[in-house]
Amino acid sequence: MEIKWALVFTLMLLLWMALERLVGLHGPYIDRHALYTNLIAIPAFLIYCLALRDKRDHFYGGTMTYRQGFVSGAITTAIITLLAPLAQYVTHALITPDYFANVQAYAVASGNMTEAEARTYFNLTSYMAQAALSSLFTGLIISAVVAIFFRKHPSEILGEPLSDRLT
User: Fold this and answer.
1) What predicted TM-score, i.e. pTM, was given to this entire model?
2) Nearest-5° Cα angle at 125, 121 to 129
3) Which residues of the chain have pLDDT under 50?
4) For 110-121, how does the pLDDT look when each residue is reduced to its tens digit (9 = 90+)?
5) CB atoms near residue 148 (< 10 Å)
6) Residue 122 to residue 120: CA distance in whole angstroms
7) Staple 113 to which of 46, 101, 118, 156, CB 3.0 to 4.6 Å?
8) Which long-range contacts (CB under 8 A, 24 or more apart) does 13-21 make?
9) Residues 130, 135, 140, 142: is their CA dihedral positive or negative?
């Protein structure tokens, strides 16, 4: 199950990057990119919710401890972390090949970085490392939070009809 949800997450990430490019956040509106890219937290959180609900309902038979939920989220996070560099490669090779040139030019023009600093920070190698680290860090935090909401003790489902527990 964790592999399935890690792949769903990675696909969502690639679609998000395509959407950002289509609305101009990797080009004419690159000055707004840093603000709007953070909205990816919403679908990321939702995917973790779906993943843990799926695990609880279809693997653990409707019950799940906090620990089981967190471990499942952590395994999903580990797979996402392994896929993150590949997702960055696909993003910058196929979806938005001009992103680095655009963001480097913007960083220099806005006075936030020198040209050398921008080249050092905004490149594929740097983004692959950043993606892996941020995937690991944020995924573990999201897993810790989401596991709270999807834990369910067996006594919480005892009042449900047996047919409801089997589906």
Assistant:
1) 0.88
2) 85
3) 162, 165-167
4) 999 999 999 999
5) 11
6) 6
7) 118
8) 13/40, 13/87, 13/91, 14/87, 14/90, 14/91, 14/95, 16/40, 16/43, 17/91, 17/95, 17/96, 18/95, 18/96, 20/96, 21/95, 21/96, 21/99
9) positive
